[in-house]
Write a structure and sequence with these properties.
Layout (H helix, E strand, L loop, with lengths): L1 H24 L2 E21 L2 E2 L8 E14 L3 E8 L5 E8 L8 E7 L2 E3 L12 E7 L13 E8 L4 E9 L7 E4 L7 E6 L13 E5 L4 E12 L2 E9 L5
Parallel strand pairs: 1-6, 8-14
Antiparallel strand pairs: 1-2, 1-3, 1-4, 4-5, 6-7, 8-11, 9-10, 9-12, 12-13, 14-15
Length: about 240
């Protein structure tokens, strides 16, 4: 009987030791995330695994938002980084960070405006006096048109058909290269035609896709959006990020 008790005790100790060793042997990886964001007028809160992140002593922030997070990620586990509207509690974005994807989140950029959230970094470009500059982004490309393209070609024209600028690639994730032309009118509209890359075919459908865009002297950073109007897919260019910078 004593031998049986001793053996059971030994097995129990071995089992406990194994559990302790397993917990200490679990692989870990340091994670560092540089966050650069902007929000106006919404006040935001960033949470890591449900806990509010403090930036300069505050757990709610607006306008320029910059911080650096450092933590440890365990193999087999997932850490949740979430962005909330602090005033109404609505979740705006969520990022799942695990042992295998930490490199994808070394830099996290976002731009939050009424009705739109861009996962990109926006810097207002410098445009010489008397010039107009355009950068474009198309974050919801394909949402209503069903297009599988990752980018489109754009041709910016005056109402008389004169070409002002050509954009070889307007993508979902980053603003296009800056295109500049001489300012000619404070009231005359400009139009952006959208095509499949490298072609003169509309990126969806058969009719020319023509977007009316306002032009301000200086920098313009236009967000293109697919929308449904009376059941028909259209493209709008109503948001100018440069107005907020």
């Amino acid at each position: 009987m004593k031998k049986t008790i001793a053996l059971a005790t030994l097995l129990s100790l071995v089992s406990c030791t194994d559990e302790v060793l397993q917990s200490y042997d679990k692989s870990q990886k340091p994670a560092e995330i540089n966050i650069k964001g902007y929000s106006k007028p919404d006040v935001l809160q960033i949470r890591l695994n449900g806990q509010p992140v403090s930036i300069n002593g505050s757990t709610s922030y607006t306008n320029n938002i910059e911080t650096k997070l450092s933590f440890v990620v365990d193999e087999g586990e997932t850490d949740a980084l979430e962005i909330y509207n602090n005033e109404n509690g609505k979740q705006i974005a969520k990022y799942s960070i695990n042992y295998n994807n930490t490199d994808e989140y070394k830099n996290l950029y976002f731009f939050n405006l009424p009705g739109i959230y861009l996962q990109t970094y926006a810097v207002k470009p410098q445009v010489n006096l008397g010039k107009v500059g355009f950068e474009l982004i198309f974050p919801n490309l394909g949402e209503y048109s069903g297009s599988s393209l990752e980018g489109v070609k754009g041709i910016l024209k005056r109402d008389n058909g004169m070409v002002l600028a050509e954009f070889d690639h307007i993508g979902k994730d980053n603003f296009s290269a800056l295109k500049v032309y001489s300012f000619f009118s404070a009231t005359a509209p400009v139009y952006l035609e959208l095509y499949k890359p490298g072609t003169t075919e509309p990126y969806f459908g058969t009719q020319i896709i023509k977007v009316t865009i306002k032009q301000d002297i200086g920098a313009n950073m236009i967000v293109l959006q697919e929308k449904l109007e009376n059941g028909i897919t259209v493209v709008k260019g109503d948001i100018d990020v440069a107005d907020y910078l």
